[in-house]
Amino acid sequence: MDKTADYYEIIGVPRTASQDEIRKQYRKLARxxxxxxxPGNAEAExxxxxxxxxxxxxxxxxxxxxxxxxxHAFEQAQQQGQAREGEDFATFVRENFGQGSFAEMFGDLFGxxxxxxxxxxxxxxxxxxxxxxxxxxxxxGQDVAQDLSISFKExxxxxxxxxxxxxxxxxxQCDGLGGQTAQCTACGGSGAxxxxxxxxxxxxxPQCQGxxxxxxxxxxxxxxxxxxxxxxxVSVKIPPGIRDxxxxxxxxxxxxxxxxxxxxxxxxxxxxxxxxxxxxxxxxIYAHVPISLTESALxxxxxxxxxxxRAKLKIPAGxxxxxxxRLRGQGAPKPGHAADSGDMYVEIxxxxxxxxxxxxxxxxxxxxxxxxxxxxxxxxxEL
Length: 383
Prior knowledge:
Layout: H1 7-11, H2 19-33, H3 42-58, H4 61-70, H5 75-79, H6 89-97, H7 101-113, E1 144-150, H8 152-157, E2 159-170, E3 179-183, E4 213-218, E5 227-238, E6 247-250, E7 266-272, E8 279-281, E9 284-292, H9 293-298, E10 300-306, E11 309-315, E12 324-327, E13 333-334, E14 337-341, E15 344-351, H10 358-370
Parallel strand pairs: 1-7, 9-15
Antiparallel strand pairs: 2-5, 3-4, 6-7, 8-9, 10-11, 12-15, 13-14
């Protein structure tokens, strides 16, 4: 470390920075430069030690005050708290940051990266491609996501769907390991490297990658991949009123668990196909219904389709195109409350006759003479 380097510049904060700002910036740098994140990188080790030494001063209010007052003349006193050559890193942290500070400072950092006494471990779900589960401990299988396309009618009325799925799954013969295993000869099954490095921290065994086991022969069932394609028959119940985008979870129907662990879940995201007549908005249903000129003028009672069958709709006299009439309780069932439903809104479209007989034409002419009301009377004359 450059003995003239400014600790504030090393951490990357101004001299007016609060303790919380210094702490946050240090944690960010520690994540980037930690030797276990950069194995074999001597520059990263030096950088991590440099920022740790700087934080040992700036992270302590008393030491920081002395550093601000005396500058690098304080270095001699600060060095008394530095880790001595070959000293265990935990001792260095305890002396410089205080008892219990190690877990507080690095807990989320090491937890996220998977550091542990036995090397790297995964934290739930199935390992990614090319990874093996560390240790033979029960592990939950992964959740499997799948889109489920259903008709508009199924979404309203509910029902049962049966189909076959094909999914990538852990090989049951080798439990996803890829073959027969034996205790790692390099670490004796501990999963940790015997070399502790300059900070006295155990890293994952390079031969078994921290699992404590070695593959001795390839699994004939999965040919060493640890995965197989599995076909399975699935039944799913669709509740009445389910909406587009809602999810259905089938517990235990997902990926196979490892080493006796529980299976994951199968999660369906529902995709409802549109209907040519009905439109759903929340739990309400909307539709356009045409009526004749005479029904518009004189009023009528007509039969209209709803999601629950035909229903009577009263058309008041003088109803114009664009009018919206409501049928209470004729909407979609509310999810989880099938007995309760939304409403249906009918938007009226007045349709003039396309053909008139000679007699009908005369009657319409007579009607126009009788109807003196100007429908455009309220239109403006100019801008």
